[in-house]
Design a protein that fits this description.
3 domains, Nucleotidyltransferase, domain 5, alpha/beta, Rossmann fold, 6-stranded mixed sheet, 350 residues
Length: 350
């Protein structure tokens, strides 16, 4: 596995690694790792940690599981496993967890090898300590790129972890998995074959819900990896509620066969910068909200249908489509209206 340059930067940011050492005998190992990771240290009988001036493994582990991207225990795997067990949330939420034995012979991944980057953390710790890395995830040991790694490396959203598990089981059992890539993002590698048409036992990189309205496919055997490339241009009356906006946006995206998880950014005119309904919508969709000045909008507004009402009230001829244009996207659904709300949909360039 290649450890890219972003690895150290990501894990060093704001001390996102925690090193937990329940025995003072592991102090030197912890210090050696800390030099590389700039990690937060919790060492029994040491001043390297600050946790009510007392080493309480349960409380320390709880804090680390909540606030760290990666955790390294200087202990047996048994101690580490029992410590983290009460705080497990799911493979899409848990940090990568590694155990390094007190003799510094082994660096062992015990949790979240893929999405939590635990395997990478295991390899890096082994490299620093000149230890033997132990990684047990089947796909890695078989030289196959698992679906969750494909998603992580390409900034894609996993539609359903159960489907990802199903696809991974096919790969592990030497069954070819189709790769239908709407963007030609991913190089076909071992275990995969390029699929020109969507089929079952396939990964589909897309922002759509269904494939050409094909209802014959069993979508429980198709894993969508969703690209967040949709831009929503939104205008609304002052005080429009989040609930009303959300219902309209969700229904509109579904109507046009677009996944709500693919929304990258909401855009609007600057006078809507503090519109509570839109702000809450962006938070709900886990996307950014960006506004443009009327001067900026005027530079592109002539490309799109004009609104006399908007021109009278704001001095510009449109909001939704010009803002999508300014965001660097192409309009794919022209402005639609519903009870004081306007919406246009765009897609970022591939």
């Amino acid at each position: 596995m290649n450890l890219d340059n972003s690895f150290r930067e990501e894990f060093n940011k704001d001390s996102n690694i925690s090193i937990i050492c329940p025995s003072p005998k592991g102090r030197e190992i912890a210090y050696k790792l800390q030099k590389y990771f700039n990690a937060k240290l919790y060492i029994k009988n040491s001043e390297s940690y600050s946790f009510n001036n007392e080493f309480k493994l349960n409380e320390i582990t709880k804090e680390a599981m909540s606030n760290s991207k990666g955790i390294i225990f200087i202990s047996s795997t048994g101690i580490a496993v029992r410590a983290i067990a009460p705080f497990l949330q799911g493979k899409d939420k848990d940090p990568g967890v590694v155990a390094v034995d007190l003799s510094c012979k082994y660096s062992i991944n015990i949790l979240s090898g893929h999405l939590g980057r635990g395997n990478e953390l295991t390899l890096k710790a082994a490299e620093i300590l000149n230890a033997t890395p132990i990684i047990t995830t089947a796909s890695d040991n078989l030289g196959i790129t698992a679906p969750d790694i494909l998603a992580q490396k390409n900034n894609l959203i996993i539609e359903d972890l159960k489907k990802a598990k199903y696809i991974a089981s096919l790969l592990i059992n030497n069954k070819l998995v189709g790769l239908k890539d709407d963007y030609n993002l991913i190089k076909v590698s071992r275990g995969y074959e390029k699929a020109l048409e969507l089929r079952e036992d396939c990964i589909w990189i897309t922002h759509n819900l269904k494939f050409k309205n094909n209802n014959k496919l069993d979508y429980s055997k198709i894993l969508r990896l969703i690209k967040k490339d949709l831009i929503l241009g939104i205008g609304c009356r002052k005080g429009t509620t989040f609930e009303k906006l959300n219902d309209f946006i969700s229904n509109s995206l579904k109507k046009y066969n677009l996944d709500v998880n693919a929304v990258n950014t909401i855009v609007s005119v600057d006078v809507k910068a503090n519109e509570e309904g839109i702000i809450r919508l962006a938070e709900h969709l886990e996307c950014s909200f960006k506004t443009f000045s009327r001067e900026e909008i005027k530079t592109v507004q002539d490309k799109y249908e004009k609104s006399e009402f908007v021109e009278k009230t704001l001095g510009i001829t449109g909001v939704c489509e010009p803002c999508i244009d300014l965001a660097g996207a192409k309009v794919i659904v022209n402005k639609i209206k519903y009870e004081g709300i306007t919406l246009a949909i765009g897609v970022l360039s591939k």
